[in-house]
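Data availability (excerpt). The following record was deposited with the supplementary files.
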Amino acid sequence: MRARRSRYYPVMLERLVRRDFDRAFFRRYYHDASTAVVHLGEAQRRVRFVLAYLDFLGVEVKSVLDAGCGVGLWRRALRRIDRSIAYTGIDTSEYLCRRYGWTRASITEFRSRRKFDLVVCQDMLQYLDGDELRLAVDRVARLCRGACYVEVPTREDFAERTLDLVRTDRRIHLRGVRFYRRLLAEHFIAAGGGIFLPRNARTTILALERG
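Predicted structure:
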């Protein structure tokens, strides 16, 4: 049988893409230090960078929506950096929502009357199929008031071995950098470092500074 193709980009066999995020998944990729893909110290450096860069760009961050928040590394880092920042975490994992108290929802279906200064999409877009992905980006654009932070493994990262392929989950949609850039460019301006600003943002970003 031929691999099912996304409407937007050729991807891996659909049946191989991970859909269940249970206790075993998070034990391997987050809780066990010997196999974890990311640690709190790294998360803190990332959060400090994002907040500092947004401060430089004049984007005030008082509220954060963490879409696909996982074990809550962003929340833990934010609490150590600035406890005044209001944090909202959503995730589709029943296990995580029961353990940490997150709101159980996908970004494609999440509704909120208010917008957020920062929307975080870290390591979650690769699990969405083509239609879900486009809907997710549209939803992020509606919820984002100040900026969004996006981190997603790409075909180039695997080819160039930028990632630790032993620790990285391979049951994902493997798409190219150009694909993600085109999709995000419908709503956002790339500011570099994984940070994207709404197209109507009043911040000045020089051409060389753009991602």
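Summary of structural features: DSSP finds seven helices and seven strands in the chain.
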